[in-house]
Amino acid sequence: MSIETMVGGQISPWMTGGGRESDIVLSSRVRLARNLDGIPFPNRADTIVLQGVIQELGEAVPELSAATGKPYILVKMGKLTPLERYVLVEKHIISPSLAQHAESRALIVEEDAAVSIMINEEDHLRIQCMAPGLALTEAFQSADKIDDVMEARHNFGFNEQMGYLTACPTNLGTGLRASVMLHLPALGITRQLNRIVNAATQLGLAVRGLYGEGSEAAGNVFQISNQLTLGHTEQEIIDNLYSVVTQVVEHERSARCMLMRESENALSDKVWRSYGILRYARSISGQEALAMLSEVRLGIDLGIIDTKQASLFNELLIMTRPNYLQKVSGSNLLAADARDRLRADVIRSKLAGRDEEYVK
Amino acid sequence: MSIETMVGGQISPWMTGGGRESDIVLSSRVRLARNLDGIPFPNRADTIVLQGVIQELGEAVPELSAATGKPYILVKMGKLTPLERYVLVEKHIISPSLAQHAESRALIVEEDAAVSIMINEEDHLRIQCMAPGLALTEAFQSADKIDDVMEARHNFGFNEQMGYLTACPTNLGTGLRASVMLHLPALGITRQLNRIVNAATQLGLAVRGLYGEGSEAAGNVFQISNQLTLGHTEQEIIDNLYSVVTQVVEHERSARCMLMRESENALSDKVWRSYGILRYARSISGQEALAMLSEVRLGIDLGIIDTKQASLFNELLIMTRPNYLQKVSGSNLLAADARDRLRADVIRSKLAGRDEEYVK
Questions:
Q1: ipTM of this model?
Q2: Which residues of A touch B334 (CB under 8 A)?
Q3: What is the distance between the alpha carbons of residues B351 and B356, in angstroms, rounded to a whole number?
Q4: The pTM is what?
Q5: Which residues contact B288 (CB under 8 A, 6 or more apart)?
Q6: Cα A324 → chain centroid
Q7: N or C: which end of chain B has fewer CB within 10 A?
Q8: Among B269, B275, B282, beta carbon nearest to A269
């Protein structure tokens, strides 16, 4: 798979899998922050140093491919158009920061985009592994393996007391950030989200919207991740997050049962109306699309809508983002109203099972 | 056609025709008020007198059939259930007053329900003729013919100065009330309705909602009728109404053109969203159904929605009324929420082209 197909495709291949608790847990992610010993952190390094880092880390590509049995490629961010970079952000392959400051930044990415390694983001190395459903252990094992391959070649900055050294102190220690993406529509409808968010925060976790810090919880999609990286082992961090997520999943599940028991008719009407609007609207904002997609996904999970298109929601989450739409349109910069119309076209074609029709 | 099929059918046969200006004018109606000479008006007559009136007027049925070539039947209101009577109201075959006070009231009705003659409503005789589209002259000619047949048998109360005598002075003279039912969505969207209503009122016409006096203009459907019956000939009354209606039709038509010219995208989105909701909702109130049906009908008229189901709107106007739904359900009295669900079922089946599916 080339970077072009990675940008152009509707969805990253790894996302099509189901995974455990996949009616509620969309995906799991683990990332490790690492830095080359004795070399300034990226925000303190000049272009020559940064290029050297890319050069050195890029040499690991053949070994990564050999060790994992899957092809990896190195992509220099400066070779991509801004639009292509932002599509990668929407697909959660790179961070907004890497897209924004492309000069002397690079990406090592695995064929199906389940593993991506950002070079010269905040740290020299950000190893990120994703998996569908609730699969924190698998994602961690995958990241750990990549880490081993890299560490066999490079000396990482490490201190007996503080663990792995990172540009930002919040990442010190394990350098591990684990997170899960949860779809919590029933907790949204029954107005229990604040309670859940507060509880998770008190347990040392951070709760964010679909696109990381500062993004709103559009479409009832939330990211829960560990705050602390220091003072706990990787396993403890994973276990703690796993335990909280399992409880949130249970809460969401009982809220869904309650909705079905106490207001199935109203819920069914709500879900089908959203489906009807998505199916026929000629213009729709990103915010509204996410809200309606969330309800339709809930309807599918509860058997209100009977469809074989299980990954519909995940796909449309990506396909209705502004940069992906801009990429699809292939034309000059889309004005907001033209983008809203294209978004409606994309959704309509997708729901009608005519995938490519809108790319006329 | 029996009265049972007349009540049970989705739509009166005459309504399926198109007629002139039928994109805006749904139907035309003319009614003549007449009273038997020397017999007290219904509100002053006792049961014996009222029964005598039914008896006497009912004898005209064979002559009506012979003169028009279409079968007529006499239906005593007391023989119908209240529900059946109110379905006839929703189909505009009888007035709410005749349905409410059924005792000693009757109806003579032509096979396709284009002609209905109420006996012992406010007057002894209310001859009502309906036609699709803008067809006031045809409706008047039809009523005039019925009037001739009846007048050949009966002496009607008549005074050289005041014309035909009626129970209420507002009907004195010609006893003629002509009206048209107009669908004015574009004037609604562009907020010009008040101006139109005021102008029509100043020209001596009355403007009402879908179900007569006091009813709201749900679904942007308006009835325009003459107020004055005295001091003008029948032809003058018809001509005046015709002239005003023609102007209103022109206003609606230019409002539609303006909408298409200046905001086709927004209009198309609005129309299709309404279609999507009607097509998939599981519960819908009468008010909301009318509003959405109005937008869908506008979409059909403007070619935004391409459908062969031209009479869809007229049919669904009737099919989604409370009493018709109660009749369809065939069960005990429907609670409001069950009725809203049945309404959604009826609309959904109809739009999917599966007419009878909901009558399970």
A1: 0.82
A2: none
A3: 12
A4: 0.85
A5: none
A6: 15
A7: C
A8: B282
